[in-house]
Specification:
Largest sheet: 6 strands, antiparallel
Oligomer: single chain
Order of helices and strands: EEEHEEEHHEEHHEHHEEEHHEEEEH
Radius of gyration: 20 Å
Strand order of the largest sheet: 5-4-16-15-14-13
CATH superfamily: DD-peptidase/beta-lactamase superfamily
Structural class: alpha+beta
Distance between the termini: 55 Å
Amino acid sequence: MTDDDARPAAAAPDLRTAPAAFDVRTVPADAPPPRTSTRRTATTPGPAVFVAVGALLAATLTGCDAADRPTVPSPAPSVTASPGPAYDFGPQSILVELVELSRVPGAAALVTREGGMSWFGAAGRATLGSARPPRREDHFRIGELTETFLAVVILQLAAEGRLRLSDPVEAHLPGLLGGNGHDGRRITLLHLLVHTAGLHPYMEDPDSPYRAFDRRLAPADLVRLGLAHPTDSIRPGASYRHAHTHYVVLGMVIEKLTGRSYAAEVERRLIDPLKLTGTSFPGARRTLPAPHGSAYSGTPGGLTDRTELDPSGLGAGGQLISTLDDLNRFYSALLGGRVLPKPQLARMLDTSDGLGHEGVGLTPWEVSCKAPLYARSSIIAGTQVLTVAAEGGGHAVTLFVNADGDLALGPQDDILELEFCGRRSPGRPTEPS
């Protein structure tokens, strides 16, 4: 089957957790399918965040050459704050429970429903030592959710005929991938998109210079960190392992094809057309745009403030800064069909190339009522974000937590179950204890 064929979206596998920024699981192709669970394991990171869905086909720019014509989404409808439905022990109580049980400084969630209905809630503190709670308009780093934006740009370029997902990396970046069993002639763009290329996750290394977030690192530096390790796969496509290194290479491909930085392409194709006014690439800026709270990492000595850092080590797939509203707006437009043509959106939701673990920049997410949901989550640099959206539906939630430690499992599941299934998690109490 060619990359241009419309491929039906695969049924969501028994998969519970969208991979987080430090998730470095290696899964062989012949491994059994992921086991269904109504709980996350205690070691699996990932906050509860939902993202909205709904809308129409992408438009294309007029008045420019075909080779330079990006697929441009139409602006998402505005979302206005209005009361959500009445809940029995609702999401605000669950947020309070999440903060108290997880012992994190603060958390916030935004629910968006079709028709402009929305609900925002917050608990705890935006910054330690301050009484201010997290706010709906606060900016924060979204880490791995950036991958969805880059994946969309790659799929738009494919729809425009400027690349094929079956292209080897060598065709676009000669000589970049080699040594330690890596071969850019065999690794394709699709392998990179679904994390089956076998590149080592540079974020895993405890002595990696990226971890200090105190120096500038070029994309080529990050790729070299990954190539310093033997390949994680007997051949490209044979096993799954999430690695930011894959999307660093994709960012370089975007720059080579378009003559513009990956940040500029995401801005002109997605951020500007969708009016994501709170979303930006930081460039060399260490600070967050105002307003913002703080971000905290757990260390043996307690919580360490990670709000300001050099973002270059996060790579092309991890640098974006955004807001709750913008994430709901983006994922709503994407899953609603206003960002990609139908064949490319179907390819994005298809998990077969990702060996049942993820599609292209999105991961199936399971709840008890079997609603078709797709997600992206991240734990990075003192911040946790998860976005989960109903396929084509217009129902979304984004949950943000301002610390990167383990979260209490029950409240996370409760928010998703309540919003998508209308009840708390099976086996959980329906009233506060």
